[in-house]
Amino acid sequence: MTLHGIGIDVVEVARIAAAIERHGEALLARLFTIAERDYCTSKMHPALHYAARFAAKEAASKALGTGIGRHANWLDLEVTHDPAGAPKLQLHGLAAAFANTHGITAIQISLTHAKAYAAANAIAIKDPTPIPPSDALSDNR
């Protein structure tokens, strides 16, 4: 495995809470998958968990080298959990296509949060297997 990129992001929990208060379900539906919303709303302090997922998506987009936009949108990056409860990042749609094209096989994430801030880091891992040259580039003529 080789490194494709790394990313980090820090979010003020109060900023996310205020945005949710102001824009409600429309904002949540634009930024978070149904599974992410179900997870966050099941918690005592949902804004804390939304903020951590927002930070994870920002960090992952930085690790991909795409930012949020043309090659990865908010719903293409989904924070899930493995059976032990550790956070995992699932790629969908544009982000999955970008990762596939660039040989990225996984994005490892780590989340943390406190009362006022949530943070995440992400590491995009690439398969080091070289892509075979095309016939046009081959010396076997």
Structure description:
The protein has a single domain, classed as Ribosomal Protein L22, Chain A, CATH 3.90.470. 39% of the residues lie in helices and 29% in strands. It is built from four helices and five strands. It has helices at 13-31, 34-41, 46-64, 93-101, and strands at 2-12, 77-81, 87-91, 104-113, 117-126. The strands form two sheets. Strands 1-5-4 form a three-stranded antiparallel β-sheet. It is globular and about 45 Å long.
List keywords for this structure.
Ribosomal Protein L22, Chain A; alpha+beta; three-stranded antiparallel β-sheet; 141 residues; two-stranded antiparallel ribbon; globular
Describe what is shown at a glance.
The protein is an alpha+beta fold and about 140 residues long.
